Amino acid sequence: MSGWNEHVTAALLGTERRDPPVLPEAPGGRDGDKAGRLLDQAAVLTVARRAGRLPGHGAPELIAPAPAEDAPVVPPAAAARLGLILRGEHVQVLPEWLDAAAARGLRVPPRLLPELLERGRGDRMLRPSITRAAGRRGVWLALRNTDWAYLVGAGDDPGGAEVWRTGTRNQRAAYLTGLRRTGPAAAREALRETWAQEPAPDRAAFLATFRAGLSPGDEEFLEAALEDRGKDVRQLAADLLARLPGSAYGRRMAERARACLTPRVRTVRGREQTWIMVEPPKAHDEEMARDGVPFHPSGSFAPGGGGGPVGTRAAWLREILARTPLGTWTDLFGLPPMEIVCLPIGTAAGEPSPHHDAGDARDVHIGWARAALKQHDTAWARALLKGGVMVDEPGALADLLAVLPAGERDAAAAGLIRWVEGRSDMLLVLERVPGPWAGDLAAAVVATLAASAGRSGAPGGRRDEHALTQLCRLAEQRLDPSAASRLEELTARRPPDEPERPVPRAVTALIATLRFREEMLKELAQ
Fold it and tell me: What is 81-96 written as a DSSP string?
């Protein structure tokens, strides 16, 4: 009973002059967790400070103790380093610390949770990482502070069928996503029952959940959605149908695409050679619009920043090719993807262009690249990356790295980096390559950094300093920390006939961050 009285006293603080109570140990004890007891006290004092009126009739409600944790706290050295990060030292590595801790089944120490949750309040990008590492006590704290409510339910089960009937849009979308993974047909029927009553933004959000468990059973529903009043709904339906193998939508797009790309044969030095004649669509019609090819395509500029403005007919061609099943071309030409992407390309007006970066070839290759990305086709992604046919589209090529098997990505990315070295496209490519950068890719990045550092400070080298700084900031978070030694070694080398120059500040900061991350990961692995 004494514990009850102490909680009542805490709740009434501010209405009478009494000292804050010391709460009794929660049933079952805390196993010596002094930090947890401190947080309990802080929660009670928060209630006390907010008390400003006399309590109503009836007994006040007890503050529920924090639930027991399954995951252990990070080692002391790792906790100390997290404290340094939260105080501003190499704060850019905070997401990596949290993700690495969660990946090892560890959680944030209780004493640092309030500061961490407060940081997540102002940084939405950090919230998923906080959710994974905060443990049950993080949610317990968030339930007592509306500023931290983003954590509540972030990683929990979205709930049962009642959520679908009464929840918010996000809760209902989460429920539908979970149901799509286990029972796509049941999810589709649940949405069908309410579809006509849903506002357009909700219809779009719910239709997006079809990415999970997409199957031929969804085709009828998606075809009907092509007639929807909402533009976003129609576009989503078209995008989903384009990913659905064997669909009527794919056959319609293949028919349009074959009218645009026609195989031709010419004789070169006594040998027959196949080439591709390109004829972009001459006009736009309602059927094209219904299938998701807009009259004014949003891709009026080439992806990756190259190529400049795109004509309307060329943009229609790209859209059609991006939505056409890639098997259309292996069937039509009877060749593997690597040989198809290397075929000469021309127009009805003349011979095929000998240069793969000519306008017609660029449009075709960009369309194929978008299709490979949408359809997650490894063979076509590999062919486009290795075929040397998109020399002006490094950004589009970098996007294809995600389609390759994990074991191939580093080498392919390294080749792409060496290809664009010294060009402004370098950062454009690297921004699309997630970390950690290891192996061949790390070696290529370190060599680029060392070369850029050598040019920095030289006559005419100022133009490189800004690009070097940007590259270093990106490498701070993505480059494997073991690269620090190699980078120090390379930047220390100078040709004998060149005057000694100080290592650029950006490179020095990068090396310090890599060392910091290296120690950080070792501490979490203890």
Answer: HHHHHHTTTTGGGHHH
